[in-house]
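Structure request: MFS transporter, Pseudomonas agronomica.
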Amino acid sequence: MDTQQRHSWGLAFGLCLITLAVNLQAPLYTTYAQLSGYGAGATAVAFSGYVLGVLPVLLAFGGLADRVGRKPLIVTALCLSMLATVITVIWPNLIALGVARLMMGVGTGLASATSTAYMVELMPTCDARSPANRVTASTSLGFGLGAALTSLFLFLHHSVTPGSFWLQLVLAALAIIVVARLPDPAPRLKHAAMLRLPLFPAGSLPYSFSMLLAWATSGLVIAILPSVLAAHDLQRWSGLSTFTVISCGLIFQPWVKRMQPARATGLGLLVLPLSYALLAWGASQGSLAAVLLGALGASSACYGFLYLGGLSAITAMAGAQKARGSAGFFLFAYVGFSIPVVVTGWLADHFGADVALAVFGLALLAGATITGLRIVRTEAFVAQPAQG
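Returned structure:
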């Protein structure tokens, strides 16, 4: 392995450890809520602390990497991931979880602001997609792997501070050493603009809204589903469902890359409600097989068809403003990752989990149908002048 490849894999290792910490506590959400005397609504609020951390960093400090360099942001993000884990080790409760999620959001925002550009600098290649693909693969794997590791340790010994927490601390410390040894070739621009407002190109809103629906579904699986599974004594499997709904989407990405963005997005909007229906039914009935199959289908939509299809469409529409166009796309995604999840948690507390899951499913079906029809009509309108 040459030096450039070694450096790129070192960065990928660091990014994976940053995102691994994000969902590390997911299988313990219900336990934290019970220890703190709260329900699903408060759990969803604590879960959404992540969004409160990541959005301001992405929007208000988008140019920070140009001023201080790439490597300091990655190292800072790794330190924040370790500190967030330590907080939940010392105080295993819902309030500490909210604080930890906020810190992990800040760390992920710092890493997201520079990860792709840094990978391009460390991994010179003729194919501009390769660095982005490596960043996507490493972060997606980390997001799901943390929850899966915690579930594995909970099967061995149930604890509010399982061995996965200590493993993350050791691996993150190792990642800091690896990243600290990487070169940082980007020039420092002392007067680079910090604020980078999102851009919403004409025709982009249906694609952005489809991402809102996708991440609302994955957020519900991470934050609300553990309490539903706990009613059937399946809480320890919630980490595996989180891993499935996030990381298994990587399997479908090579196929999605060969599809037209509109077709990929349309297919994702068809798969998502059907997969959610299977997942919700399985959770209500205590069928682990249905939950995992539904999570796999949802993952194909959330992190395959809708993610790559929507992002490809947005970047094409944004032209030279690709960074701002992507920021607008992810703004919708993170709104979906927070508000619908909090509302569903509130419904679960006041009307029961089955009612909350059904209401979310109906809203998801309506949103997917309207958005899909909008994309079909937009593509048909664009195709008519081309045919003429």
